[in-house]
Structure formats: C-alpha cells, structure tokens
Design a protein that fits this description.
Number of domains: 2
Number of helices: 5
Shape: globular
Helix content: 10-25%
Radius of gyration: 19 Å
Strand content: 25-35%
CATH class of the largest domain: Alpha Beta
CATH architecture of the largest domain: 2-Layer Sandwich
CATH topology of the largest domain: Alpha-Beta Plaits
Distance between the termini: 27 Å
Largest sheet: 10 strands, mixed
CATH superfamily of the largest domain: Pseudouridine synthase I, catalytic domain, C-terminal subdomain
Structural class: alpha+beta
Oligomer: single chain
Length: about 250
Amino acid sequence: MDKRRFFLEIAYFGQSYHGWQVQNNAISVQEVLNRALATLLREPIETTGAGRTDTGVHAKQLYAHFDAAAVGILTKPDRFIHSLNALLPFDVAVKRLIEVADDAHARFDATHRSYEYHLHFHKDPFIYPYSCFMRDRPDVDKMNEAAQFLLGKQDFECFSKSHTQVFTNICDIRRAEWLWHNEQDLVFHITADRFLRNMVRAIVGTSLEIGLKGKPASFMQEVIKSKSRGKAGVSVPAHGLYLTEVAYPYI
C-alpha cells in the first residue's frame, strides 16, 4: 500500500527529556512520539523533526514528518489527534495533523525558526521551571544595542557547541530583540533561517556579559569576529529557552 507524508505540529515541556532527538541511553521527545505513533498505527514509525532542541529546552511549536498509509484513523484528523494525545505523556502534546506532498521535509523546508529566552527577577518557585531567575536587572537598552550586531548573515561559530558536525556555521539572523513582558519578565526574541547547537543560550549569556558586567555593546561584534567559543559568555540554563515557531511556505 502506498504511503503518504504527514506533518505533526507538536509542543512539549522539555524538563524530563534529553532533547528532541532519539538517543541510546536517555529518553527523548522523538522517542516517545515514535512509540505512540507505532502503537496507534500498528506499524513502526520514524519521525523527522524540524530541528533539535537540547536537553531541558521547551517547544511551543515544532513540526515533524512521518510516512504512513492514509487509511483508517489517519483519514480522521480530529480522532487521530485525540487518540495520539491519549498515548503521549502529559508533557508532550500534538496540535495538528497535516497531509503534505510526498517530498515535503520538516527540517529542510523550514524557512525560519524563532526562539524566546525568558528571565524573571522576582523569586517565584512556581515559575522557576519555565524561566531563568536572576537577582540583578541588566541594562536592556545596552543589550538591545548589542543585539544589532547579530543581525544578518554571518559566521556564528563563536556561539556553537564544540565538536558539532555541521556543514556551515553561517546563519541569517532576522530578529534579535529584548522586550519586557508585564514590566517584570524579560524575554529575548530571536529569529533566523537556522541555528547552531547551543547558539541561543550562548548569545543570551554573552548579552548578559554586556547588560550586567559592564562590557560595551560592541563586545558582541568582537565575539562574533573572534569565532571563538571561549570569548563568548557562559551558556544560560536550558529551562528558560523555548522554540516558539517553525515556518514553511506551504503551512
């Protein structure tokens, strides 16, 4: 029987997972999704995600594709989503099932991706898993000045995790901005065509070197030009980071 290609839109709270991608000795979001799909469709299913998220990182929107015969429950999207969510743990949710062209690809067809990093400055045990607590407020105007150096197509090796197997460190950043939410929570918004491993958390750490430790806004440009991970700031904790959007020309 001919198989068709489907996209799933999912969201997850990443605290219990070692990132998106299947690993040998740790639980991942992809593993629990593949297992639930195989149970529901009664055949082995392998998903391909729009990209990786690291251990502890959350996703408000991520797409993954899989191939299966378009019969039975797959012809009834609402029922399919309800049944699949019943098989998934509480911290992983499926939002949409979309049938796409057979050559559509969740990773390679994405035109841009957006992330948010959340900081809060009032100690609150109920929001700690969702945002990074900081005691001191940074100079947001200076951090936004520094963020301008991130824009455009550049080599961002300085913000990449060491020894990653990627074909290029070039990324095209289209938005980089710090905004206050409710005058208490600070959120970094960033959009690019692609991201390197650990890139957003390293950018936030470097921004805080500028906003809290007195480095000039031009320090961001200095770090980028150095291409040295050792020059950039320390990566901030994973639990404040969210993948918020993955965009496609046909969705």
